[in-house]
Amino acid sequence: MHHDFLDRHARLESPVHRLPPRVKLAAAMSLLFTIILIPAAHAAWFGLIAVGLLAIAAMSRVPPGFLLRRLLLMGPFVLGVAILSLFQPGGEAIFLRLLARGTLCLLTVLVLASTTPFSEILRVLRSLRAPSILVTTLALMYRYVFVLVDEAQRMNRARASRTFGRGRSRLWRTRASVIGQLFVRSTERAERIFAAMSARGWRT
User: Fold this and answer.
1) CA end-to-end distance (rounded Å), the chain
2) What is the mean pLDDT of residues 92-119?
3) How far apart (Å, rounded) are the C-alpha atoms in residues 87 and 76?
4) Measured over all CA atoms, what is the biggest interatomic distance in the chain, rounded to whole angstroms?
5) Which of 28, 54, 114, 203 has the greatest CB tally within 10 Å of its CB?
């Protein structure tokens, strides 16, 4: 099981890593709200924010390739939402603004996650009196995403050892089957975990 694929570089030594988690979280949230609220007439601010984020990423010494791969991995979700704006009048300008906002928001979150251990983020949220159900959900999500990835890897290895064809159509059918089985297994695991937690006195 790879326990560091999310925050692999969160414990490096750099000026950004040494900042208090509370300061980094507050700065990231302020920047996210700024990105969202920038008026359409001031689109040049997107470029300035991008330059600032890249400078912070360089100071943090997080490998650029790591950030780029994570950005490309999550970029299709932003692109999918932005594409919907093309079906309305003047959609091209809205598409570009949504794409810029979404990409900058993703980069902000990636820089925060790559410079701050997730446990520290949860500790700050608790100290700020964030809803306990939110903090618990985030903690469980972080804990069990590794279990989910490990389960997917084992299923892929088992499927690969029993599949000898190399056709593209067979590959897509195999992946669809693995995704479906993974969804069923994760749902069953979630129900078992909830039952075990409830039996030990946990309440929402």
Assistant:
1) 30
2) 88
3) 18
4) 57
5) 114
